[in-house]
Design a protein that fits this description.
mainly alpha; 56% helix; 7% strand; two-stranded antiparallel sheet; Four Helix Bundle (Hemerythrin (Met), subunit A); 5 helices
Length: 181
């Protein structure tokens, strides 16, 4: 029997050896990480969406909205429509609605990135590079930044889930609630 970790490693190694295309490497990672984030979002009790461990921390709903906005930013970057306004769009009040839109947008994000030409992956988008500074990000580098930020905030949300009494699913290996053996 093959474990999910072994299966993923074998799949990634085969994919990289057969297709070293940087866009495909990103999409492989994006699909895997999105599935893990979706699993965590589905495990989070919606009635606890306003939970925050500290007054300066985001609520669980705000973290979920961050995941959604990162996908929207990817779509805008890869369709050359990314325009920074200095403000976020209004956040839905309903945690479940945010999760549904995050799931619904996923295929569109993938299709847009799949259709990008190799040359366009290096074209820049304007996005913050530091406090009060905007700079050029090559599109593919920007995509990896968005994915890494999703992974970072997913780690926060997994701690929130434990704190509200939820069951934390496996992320990169077994969890206290989802054992592999």
């Amino acid at each position: 029997m093959t474990s999910p970790a072994t299966s993923h490693t074998a799949t990634s190694a085969a994919s990289s050896a057969v297709n070293p295309d940087p866009r495909q490497q990103f999409l492989d990672a994006f699909r895997k990480e999105h599935a893990t984030t979706r699993k965590l979002l589905r495990a989070f009790p919606p009635e606890q969406s306003e939970f925050t461990p500290h007054e300066r921390s985001n609520t669980a709903r705000q973290l979920a909205f961050t995941f959604l906005m990162e996908q929207k930013l990817l779509m805008a970057a890869f369709t050359d429509t990314l325009r920074l306004t200095g403000r976020m769009p209004p956040m839905p009040d309903d945690f479940a609605a945010i999760v549904e839109e995050f799931e619904r947008d996923f295929d569109q994000v993938c299709r847009i990135i799949e259709s990008a030409t190799p040359e366009s992956l290096a074209t820049p988008v304007q996005f913050p590079v530091g406090p009060g500074q905007v700079g050029d990000w090559p599109k593919l580098q920007f995509a990896w930044f968005m994915l890494c930020d999703q992974i970072h905030h997913r780690g926060q949300l997994s701690v929130y889930l434990r704190m509200v009494g939820g069951k934390v699913p496996s992320i990169y290996g077994p969890s206290g609630d989802e054992r592999w053996f």
